[in-house]
Amino acid sequence: MQTKAQKRSILLSTEIIAILLIYTWIAETEAKVPALIVFGDSTVDAGNNNVLPTTLKANFPPYGRDFMGTRKPTGRFSNGRVATDFYSEMYGLRSFVPAYLDPEYGIEDFALGVCFASAGTGIDPETAGVLSVIPLFKQVKLFEEYQARLEGYLGPEMAKKTISEGVYAVSIGTNDFIENYFAYSTPRFLEFTPERYVQFLINLGREFIVQIYMLGARKIGFTGLSGMGCLPLERNRNPMWGRPCIETYNKAARDFNSKLQQMTDELCNALPDLQLKVAHLYDFFANILQNPSLYGFEDAQYGCCGTGTYELGYLCNEYTPFTCTDASKYVFWDAVHPTEKTSRIVAEYLMNTTFSKFK
Q: What predicted TM-score, i.e. pTM, was given to this entire model?
């Protein structure tokens, strides 16, 4: 059995290796990646929801309290940065990816990276309607607008190079199940079995990939779903039973990931020069939850904010009692979203396994 000193030594060695890997990734990819372009939901939203007439926002404390030393609530659903911010830094671009609708930034900022993601959205357009956020097809429209602005800023040739050689990070799908299908009162639940709804989402996802491919995207990393049944919001629905993960939700995530990989293989065979990769997250994140101490965490069941059971968005605010003082001890920041530390660990893993593999 390992002693505490041995465990600390292992953790320290792991952190040193991770730092060395980051510098290796930067050295290898700096000249190859002109920009990072982000589509998705709250896992990667950098603040686009701030300007929307929706209740799902995170532009107030304690969100952002650890954001790059500024304590700025940017609209990210985190105490700090999200995974795509770390991708950008690892690519040698900048330390964060700005939100396209954030008035503080312009095309000179977006030329190196831009985020179109919107918290609460999904692959299914009906999911975005639940909380009045940006559906995926409108994110594509913003991408088209961005291309026109980029061409005006860089010129046609450089803009085309940025679009074709940039890396695209897509993180979406969880809300389709949590907000939409498994809400049970929605039309989708009455219309589809879980298996058919997964296929419905995959078909829509295929259409999205083809759309951005036709607009010039070639290097696309689509992050698979993690065990959404293990989110604090879901686990704490059954406190009397020891707060187990909800297997129905996790099975849907695994089915989605399997079909996503099949769709990826089919599209790569059908579309010339397409480099579409699935960033497999399910097993890695499950290991974090099962062995949190190996990653330097003390709590993997509750979020840092409030009681850590249901707080999210406006329920996680500066007046919420019981919010933890050190988010780095927690896997989750609120009842759904990871802490900055978790996002960094996930980003390092996915960069090593997926996002550093584009040619």
A: 0.91
